[in-house]
């Protein structure tokens, strides 16, 4: 299996798990580089410019949280965080500092590989897929430039993570339509199985903080009680 732009950086201090993940990803055709501590992870990410970062939270020297904070300011690489804890706080913190998704150990290799494939698949869908798809969508003072993968509000560029942009772009292209959390996981994250819908909620909350005048009382990114979310426009 050959791919272009398929470099994965795995950051994991458990040597056995690191080797297992590396072996399975390489078997799938991915170009894999690795690091076992936070400082080395930052060095390698800056040098190698990976297309996907798989990042453990509990790392020597610099935590996965701090690695995520630092690299998110420098690059838009999709980040999948790994945690050994079932604590909701770790999951939410990871998402809020810029991770696109997380998995809790132990996880099945089948699900792990499905997540990786989904993240690569979404990354390749950044550009308009057909001539009929608009290059940009404007809703009031909010403009989403699909071709440049950029959004602005009242002329000011919004600082969005890759997944925040994907979610906003999808809702903008389908404005006025209501989507359940499960539908958004499928359409935006690319999952073909049940994921944790908290991921969607956190990204919605982050988007509201960036596009709403009063995030606590949103006027554009609306919750439809018992159903899901929609973007008004």
Which sequence of strands runs across the widest sheet? 2-1-3-4-5
What overall form do the CA principal axes indicate?
A: globular
CATH homologous superfamily title of the largest domain: Response regulator
> How many distinct beta strands?
11
Termini separation comes to: 43 Å
Classify the oligomer.
single chain
Number of domains: 2
Mean pLDDT: 87
Strand percentage: 15-25%
Instruction: List the uncertain runs.
Output: 127-131
Helix content: 40-55%
CATH topology of the largest domain: Rossmann fold
Order of helices and strands: EHEHEHEHEHEEEEHHHEE
Largest sheet: 5 strands, parallel
Helical/strand content category: alpha/beta
CATH level-two architecture of the largest domain: 3-Layer(aba) Sandwich
Describe the structure.
This protein is an alpha/beta fold. The chain has 2 domains: 7-123, Response regulator (Rossmann fold); 136-231, Arc Repressor Mutant, subunit A. Helices cover 40% and strands 20% of the residues. The strands form 3 sheets. It has a 5-stranded parallel β-sheet, sandwiched between helices. The protein has a 4-stranded antiparallel β-sheet with strand order 6-7-8-9, covered by helices on one side. The longest helix is centred in the middle third of the chain and has 15 residues, at 109-123. Residues 127-131 have low confidence and may be disordered.
């Amino acid at each position: 299996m050959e791919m272009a732009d398929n470099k994965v950086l795995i950051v994991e201090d458990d040597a056995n798990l690191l080797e297992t993940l590396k072996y399975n990803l390489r078997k799938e055709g991915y170009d894999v580089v690795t690091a076992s501590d936070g400082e080395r992870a930052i060095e390698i990410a800056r040098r190698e410019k990976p297309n996907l970062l798989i990042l453990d939270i509990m790392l020597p020297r610099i935590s996965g949280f701090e690695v995520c904070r630092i690299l998110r300011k420098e690059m838009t690489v999709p980040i999948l965080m790994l945690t050994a804890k079932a604590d909701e706080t770790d999951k939410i913190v990871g998402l809020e500092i810029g991770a696109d998704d997380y998995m809790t150990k132990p996880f099945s290799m089948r699900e792990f590989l499905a997540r990786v494939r989904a993240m690569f698949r979404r990354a390749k869908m950044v550009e308009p897929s057909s001539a009929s798809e608009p290059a940009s969508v404007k809703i009031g003072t909010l403009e989403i430039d699909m071709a440049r993968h950029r959004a602005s509000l009242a002329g000011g560029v919004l600082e969005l993570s890759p997944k925040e942009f994907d979610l906003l772009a999808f809702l903008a292209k389908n404005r006025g339509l209501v989507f359940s959390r499960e539908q958004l996981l499928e359409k935006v994250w690319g999952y073909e199985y049940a994921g944790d819908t908290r991921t969607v909620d956190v990204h919605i909350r982050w988007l509201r903080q960036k596009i709403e005048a009063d995030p606590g009382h949103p006027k554009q990114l609306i919750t439809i009680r018992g159903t899901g979310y929609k973007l008004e426009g």
